[in-house]
Amino acid sequence: MRILRLAVTAAALLLSFEASVQAQTTLRIGLAEDPDILDPTMARTYVGRIVFAAFCDKLFDIDAKLNIVPQLALSHETSADGKEVTIKLRPGVKFQDGEAFNAEAAKFSIERHITLPGSFRKPELASVDHVDVVDPLTIKLVLKAPYSPLIAQLTDRAGMMVSPKAAREAGEKFGLRPVCAGPYKFVERVQQDRIVFEKFADYWNRDNIFIDKVVFLPIVDATVRLANLKSGGLDLIERVLATDLKEVRADSRLKLSTAIELGYQGLTLNIGKDKAKGPLSQSAKVRQALDLSIDREAINQVVFNGEFKPGNQWVNPDHPYYQKAFPVRGRDIAKAKALLKEAGVTPPVSVDFMVPKGAETEAVSQVIQSMAAEAGFDIKIRVTEFATSLKQAEAGEYQAFMLAWSGRIDPDGNSYVFLRKDAPQNYSAWTNADADKALDDARLVTDMAQRKAFYEKLTKLELDEEAILYLYHRRIIIAHTTRLEGYTQMPDGLVRVTGLKLK
């Protein structure tokens, strides 16, 4: 009898162990690229922002209607003169190394974003003069001048908080083993293969975290990503091709979640750094001619089955800051040819067109090449790996550059960094004193009507001089298995893991 009882007990323990193993859930997410460094201060890619959403909480977040909502902060208050922003912090928050999140930690993170050599957050927080600790759970950002987009900036990487202890110990290697205050903690990364996270037991919002592990798998080929989703190798994939939507909709095991992006896809034109001094860089009329040779709606229908939204500004036509006085112009080949003649340019106009590698961008570039040829342009497509294309853009080694921007909730985030003189992502090297003033003035006021008036001036100047030809706004297309419950797509394109369940 004793032997029998021992055998029964052992069998029960084995069943209990197997049940606990089976209860472990893993969410496998297919990414379109491998992210850059996993340090919110130094990172710059859209795909990296998707990964950060799983492990790096921010002071603020957004909801589906683009309202700013608290995350690691509880509230904020701006002084009457607009130069002091007081932020109350959430109590009881821990970093993934067990260290407490408090005002000193928040001050450290913001100062690190501003001062770390090579920081991509520095321009986003350039308005901050210094950070004061008011009490253990309150900080005050003292500004050099009023800056209306500040809280919007803190809904993205500038608002991500890192563990001071881990950051000090790791130094420049922090991105190899990042420590934040989000729902999942970093386990390992194998470049071009996988990034693994496991649930953080002491997360402040742990009651809304239901999946044990999250694994991000970079799979560049969109067709292969979809095949893995259909076969069960992945649970969710980002950037489904618009041409694959029919296939996804036809599969009862899959679900779609979409939203029109906050950002844009456009042609950045090299104005100030073109070493060849080609006609495109030397004449606004030539740039306008290229613009008039392009049929945006035709691109949408031919390449994207009509799923995207044609546009001509840095915000989409549904956005509250879209300037309706400047609608999308139709294609006009006769006018394009006349502008080339006025500019004193004899066709064909040769253009070095740098295009980041990818099925959709390459397809769009070929359509543009064909359209522009009818107006007298000889577009020479040069397909380039994405990270390399950014380096070449910074160096001015291109004449036209197919560049996407994932977008920010405030219009400043879609315009200032690209159009302001000497701004870090002004790859065009466009300079216009009136445009600079409009960009600066829009930062000083919070009233929407006033800000919109400044952006109206900017829109007219940009559409006249054509530093960037804005083409369309992509539909963020996420596909996932029906096993995944609770997924909602936000317009910022990020994949939020809070609240998700796997059946």
Q: What is the CATH top level name of the largest domain? A: Alpha Beta
Helix content: 25-40%
Q: Estimate the mean pLDDT confidence.
A: 94
The CATH superfamily name of the largest domain is Dipeptide-binding Protein, Domain 3
Q: How far apart are the first and last residues' alpha carbons, in Å?
A: 41 Å
Number of DSSP E strands: 21
CATH topology of the largest domain: Dipeptide-binding Protein, domain 3
The strand order across the widest sheet is: 8-9-10-1-11-19-12
What's the alpha carbon Rg, rounded to whole Å?
25 Å
The biggest beta sheet reads:
7 strands, mixed
What would the principal axes of the Cα set say about the shape? globular
Fold topology:
Layout (H helix, E strand, L loop, with lengths): L1 H22 L2 E6 L14 H10 L4 E3 L5 E3 L2 E6 L5 E6 L13 H13 L12 E8 L2 E6 L6 H4 L10 H7 L13 E7 L3 E6 L13 E6 L3 H10 L4 E2 L7 H5 L4 E7 L3 E6 L9 H4 L1 H9 L3 H9 L4 E2 L22 H10 L6 E8 L2 H15 L3 E8 L1 H10 L4 E6 L6 H8 L13 H12 L3 H18 L2 E6 L1 E7 L2 E2 L15 E2 L1
Parallel strand pairs: 1-10, 1-11, 15-16, 15-17
Antiparallel strand pairs: 2-3, 4-5, 5-7, 6-7, 8-9, 9-10, 11-19, 12-19, 13-17, 13-18, 14-18, 20-21
Helix pairs in contact: 9-11, 14-15, 15-16
Overview of the molecule:
The protein is an alpha+beta fold and 503 residues long. The chain has 3 domains: 26-32 and 182-261 and 476-502, Periplasmic binding protein-like II (D-Maltodextrin-Binding Protein, domain 2, 3-Layer(aba) Sandwich), CATH 3.40.190; 57-167, Dipeptide-binding Protein, Domain 1 (Dipeptide-binding Protein, domain 1, Alpha-Beta Complex), CATH 3.90.76.10; 264-473, Dipeptide-binding Protein, Domain 3 (Dipeptide-binding Protein, domain 3, Roll). 33% of the residues lie in helices and 22% in strands. Strands 8-9-10-1-11-19-12 form a 7-stranded mixed sheet, sandwiched between helices. The protein has a 6-stranded mixed sheet with strand order 14-18-13-17-15-16. Strands 4-5-7-6 form a 4-stranded antiparallel sheet, covered by helices on one side. It is globular and about 70 Å long. The relative contact order is 0.15. The model is unreliable at 1-21 (pLDDT under 50).
